[in-house]
Amino acid sequence: MPSTALPRPLIPVILSGGAGTRLWPISRESHPKPFITLPDGQSLIEKTYRRALALPQVAEVLTVTNRDYYFRCKDEFKRCDRSGVVPSAFLLEPQGRNTAPAIALAAAHVRQQHGPDAVMLILPSDHLIADLAAFERDVASAVALAGAGWLATFGIRPATPETGFGYLQAGAAITEVPAGNGLKSLRFVEKPDLETAQTYVADGNYYWNAGMFCFNAQAFLDALGAADPALLQGVLACWEDACKAADADLRMVELPAESFAQLPAISVDYAVMEKAERVAIVPASFDWNDIGSWNSVAELTAPDANGNRIEGDAVTHNVTNTYLHSETRVIGAIGLHDIMVVDTPDAVLVAHRDQVQDVKILVNQLKSRGFDVATEHRTVARPWGTYTVLEEGPRFKIKRIEVKAGAALSLQMHHHRAEHWVVVGGTAKVINGEQQLLLRSNESTFIPAGHRHRLENPGVVPLVLIEVQSGDYLGEDDIVRFEDRYQRAPGPQA
Question: What domains does the chain contain, in order, with CATH numbers?
Answer without folding.
Answer: 10-283 (3.90.550.10), 294-364 (no CATH), 379-483 (2.60.120.10)
